[in-house]
Amino acid sequence: MKVVIVGGVAGGASCAARLRRLDENAEIVMVEKGPYVSYANCGLPYYVGGVIEKESSLLVASEQMFKVMFGIDVRTNCEAVSISAKDKTVELRDVESGEITVEPYDKLVLSPGAASVHPPLPGIDSPGIFQVRTVPDVRKIREWIEGGTTYLTGMSNYSGIQMVKPARRAVVVGGGFIGLEMAENLIHIGFEVTVLQRLPQILGPLDPEFAVTVEEFIKARGVKLELNDGAAAFEQLDSGAIKVKTDSGKEHLADIVILAIGVRPDTALAKTADLEIGERGGIRVDDQMHTSDPDIFAVGDVIEVKDFGTGEWSLVALAGPANRQGRIAADVICGRDSRFRGTQGTSIIGLFGGAAAWTGVSEKTLQRLGDSDYEKIYLYPNSHAGYYPGASMIGLKVLFRKSDGKLLGAQALGADGPAVDKRISALAMAIQMGATVYDLEEAELCYAPQFGSAKDPVNFAGMVAANILQGDMPVSHWDSMDDAFLLDVREPVELAVESVPGAVNIPLSQLRSRLAELPKEREIHIICRSAQRAYYATQLLQQHDFKASNISGGMLSRAMESMEKAK
């Protein structure tokens, strides 16, 4: 059996290695258009910022290693230009010489990835404007930063005493993963950074109140953020600097511009074989990675996948799913009954020491689908035991079915990145296994005071959600507080910091003795800082025949929603 694999990074390389482990006799040819296979494209921004010091650290496996260790015929700088599905051949072009050869196959695996979006804007191909997709891309960026323009290099080479160092300016177009990671790393090496984002928020998968919290976090660390405003044109100035013109008419000067607008599946090769392309623009595959041609498989960023939560077709450009898909394709080629479950988009981004992460369905997706069978909770637990030094708050939002408690999605952010990672990873596994909030209550997780709490935030989320579903804690939200009776059970000293206009203040410690001041004919919505004291008050009032509900997340969730409304 001869298998040709097009694309030698995440999905393709994983497929090739798995194939060899399963079939020592298979003839495996892996072709890669670029000069490297199996490189760490997720690490590219950190090479620009110097966190990763050596370019060689980005090269996970070499062409030679695949040949020696796995007996795989790897051909770099080799582009697949067309497929003859009828003849079961691939036409290959040597990038350096232009020579064309034809390679036959029994099975073909397509893993060409996704191409960076490069809109036809005036001046977009000017010197100093870069994308971030490959190792050569970031090598060019570093070379430009070290000496690309007179402005960048002039003061560095000044022969006298340098009293003033000129500000270095960067414009990043796009507010997704790569754009924000590049913004952070450019700030680390001394650039003033402006991020242009045509959409009303950064990090599209996040719900707006979480996205705005990340926006304020990065702005406080020096990132200038322009939302609802995209790049319209670029103009090279005589100094070598670039004038970036926006949709709104603003102009930003930059010494370097990073294009991080997004990616699109690279389906040009698939179209030569007349393979089915889905409505989202990716190659359509089944759960065994077959395309519409049974002898051609596709994996990675080039394909459409089923969303695990909604069943919709989606595009998910993530390394984890790509690697799993490559492995599944190899299994199926070797006769195994492996299947891809779909993806839930589990992701995390680290920014300035903190992190934001998410998994499963967002609230805005449920609203778009018209799905009203869900409830949400906000909670703000510590990253680890509060008495142990270094604990910090995690903001956590969990979505679940009102009808049966099935876990739907979760989002988290916090200054302690590993703590955020840990909770979303646990919740991601729970979602994939079809868990309910009742399962979260009983989840047995690691505990030591420096790592967590005896009641872990994952347990805590399950307990809060279960209380709601069991009727122990009716819940309400700030977006439905019109003409509501608000009871604030915080201490008066806390109200001096922030308060809600019109709310009645009865501290929890006085509530039992002041029940007569509350109306029994109206529903009472209860406030505290994070909703914990409000929970105690809700229980108390319910048992005295009041109609009471806890405003989820308390003043902390109000702060997030207030920031979102103020945008």
Descriptive overview:
- With about 575 residues, the chain is an alpha/beta fold.
- The protein folds into four domains: about 1-40 and about 55-115 and about 265-335, FAD/NAD(P)-binding domain (3-Layer(bba) Sandwich); about 130-155 and about 165-260, FAD/NAD(P)-binding domain, CATH 3.50.50.60; about 345-465, 3-Layer(bba) Sandwich (FAD/NAD(P)-binding domain), CATH 3.50.50; about 475-565, Rhodanese-like domain (Oxidized Rhodanese, domain 1, 3-Layer(aba) Sandwich).
- It contains 16 helices and 31 strands.
- The chain has a five-stranded parallel beta sheet with strand order 3-2-1-7-19. The chain has a five-stranded parallel beta sheet with strand order 9-16-10-11-12, covered by helices on one side. A five-stranded antiparallel beta sheet has the order 22-23-26-25-24, with helices on both faces.
- Helix 1 (about 10-20) runs parallel beside helix 9 (about 320-335) and helix 7 (about 210-220) crosses helix 16.
- The radius of gyration is 27 Å and the shape is globular.
- The termini are far apart.
Tags for this model:
single chain; 567 residues; alpha/beta; FAD/NAD(P)-binding domain; 4 domains; five-stranded parallel β-sheet; 28% helix; globular
Topology of this protein?
Blueprint: E1 2-6, H1 10-22, E2 27-32, H2 44-48, H3 63-70, E3 73-76, E4 78-84, E5 89-94, E6 100-104, E7 107-110, E8 114-116, E9 129-131, H4 135-147, H5 150-153, E10 168-173, H6 177-188, E11 191-197, H7 208-219, E12 224-227, E13 231-236, E14 242-246, E15 251-254, E16 256-259, E17 263-265, H8 268-272, E18 283-284, E19 296-298, E20 303-306, E21 313-314, H9 319-333, E22 347-351, E23 354-360, H10 363-368, E24 375-379, E25 394-400, E26 407-414, H11 417-432, H12 437-442, H13 457-469, E27 475-476, E28 485-488, H14 492-495, E29 504-505, E30 524-527, H15 532-542, E31 548-551, H16 554-566
Parallel strand pairs: 1-2, 1-7, 2-3, 7-19, 9-16, 10-11, 10-16, 11-12, 18-20, 27-31, 28-29, 28-30, 30-31
Antiparallel strand pairs: 4-5, 5-6, 8-17, 13-14, 14-15, 20-21, 22-23, 23-26, 24-25, 25-26
Helix pairs in contact: 1-9, 7-16
